[in-house]
Amino acid sequence: MAMASHFTRFRKSQVPQIFCRKKEKEKGPNHTYKVIEITPPPRNLGIRCFPSNLQCGESVTIEGQTYTISSITHRYQLRKGKYEPSEKRLDVLSTGRYILNLYLENLLDQS
After folding, report:
1. In the predicted structure, residue 100 carries a pLDDT above the cut 60
2. Whole-prediction pTM
């Protein structure tokens, strides 16, 4: 029982660290992002390393498939009176779906 409470205290005080692989570090400064494909139903593509200067509309390749970044979210959590980064998240769409959405939005604006 004491062991479980010790484990809980450890989990609350420390955030797990995820590091980029050595070959990914060679490309320049990278950050870890949680990648979600937002086409219904949402699908988790895992935690990936990408450069820190990503922007919406850029293309990224994950496991041989090309995706377009729809949004980038940086979440912060208040700990001990300071806001600390807690999560970096990329919402992506397959490139074909992204182009189709742009086309349909353009048609809606024209009507």
Report:
1. yes
2. 0.70
